Request: fold
Amino acid sequence: MDPLKICLLSSEVTPFAKTGGLADVSAALAGALKSRGHQVLLFMPLYERVEKGDWKFDFVTELKGTKVSFGEREIEFEVFTTALPNSKQLVHMIHCPELYGRKEIYTQDKDEHLRFALLSRAALDCCQRLGFAPDVIHCNDWHTGLLPLYLKTVYAWDKLFEKTKTVMTIHNIAYQGMFPADVIPELGLSDGAKYFDQADRDDGLVNFLRTGLTFADKLTTVSATYAHEIQTAELGMGLEGLLQSRAADLSGIVNGVDYADWSPQKDKLIPHAFSPKDVSGKALNKRALLDYLRLPHDANVPVLGVVSRMTAQKGFDVMFDVLPRRLEEHDMRLTVLGSGEKKYEDFFRWLKREFPTKVGFETEFNDGLAHLIEAGADIFLMPSRYEPCGLNQMYSLKYGTIPIVRKTGGLADTVEQFDPATRKGTGFVFEHFMPSAFQWAFDFALETYADSDAWKQLMQNAMACDTSWDKQVLEYEKLYRSL
Ligand code: ADP
Reply:
């Protein structure tokens, strides 16, 4: 079959700029599509931190001095490319110091809407300048939500896009890109207001994600369960009505994992490689992890791991009573990496103070430690309130680090309850978002850990799971072709 021309946009791409799973997904998907022979143009902003980083950039002369008008304002940008590591796939980075020359990737600044409106416009302008006629433009999250609308309005005249279809992927519906309605004249649409949802405008708002979900040809999210959940009032965050009305165009595709980065055989960031056939390296990583966090080592004591943004979504509230009690009663280690809301950071700081020989907690963004926790811990905790897909539970499976998860979104789709009778299953799954349910799963995990034969089998089951991009990319390919 003919290769496709795909244009992919993301506000984050690993390893250049990352705050969460979106970065890993956009890099890996672009790389996987490229290896399938497709032509991919991947766009992201050239943030200040990326510009200052240790990357080799090439200036794209054909795209020199491109100007886009947003109402009365003209914004000029240039484009630099650099290759994704271990791949020939290029990333086109939009260089606009006026908008991206700031310390953070995301800001609360007054022109945040423009920072990401530019990403959509720049991608379309670059396609024009390069004479690249995409079969599909794949938008990710609210940051790229205006693109389908721009394509159908500002760029509708251009025959280059005559056959172009759009896909909008929701990585987390909680982040919708809502701005005061008075930014509408600044978005560069003539008579712009009519395109935006009336009810939002009555509330004085525009919603970038809603706009993307209204105008894109196909909608996806990152697991089949989450695709159902976001059509309910409980998890739709106000967009459930729209999603119900577009149910026929909405599907769920679980994210893949880049096993070149995240597998115990190939991981360059862990001190000891291991594999399902020979897991002895895992015990050495366990020691390295505890040494790193200056915790006493005991090969027989279970090590629990957490790597996470610290937000209400991640479900730490169910741990508040259970963890201190279990740390008091049992010998175990808890290794935690993450930052975010004070309430959760304070909880882990307090645990570390109360149990200085059992708990390690680091708040920086530390890729190396994230990998070491995956490789060295025995059990991974992910009790999310909701989880569109989740990557860490899939990484955990590959490293034989057994996940305890709540049955929601991608966690429900990727972790199977362990059954001690048949010894089938890959982790511990609880259903209700309640401390007692978490405690049940936690105790079940500790009991199973004490039975070393059962645990060995469970580790083998987990490590045999395959959610590689080689597999998942075919789902996207099928979707693109269906357009
Ligand atoms: P989300 O996208 O909701 O944050 P995911 O599980 O999909 O959750 O992806 C989280 C990603 O971010 C994982 O790759 C995880 O290792 C990484 N991560 C989160 N916090 C940190 C941190 N403090 N240091 C390093 N990596 C982190």
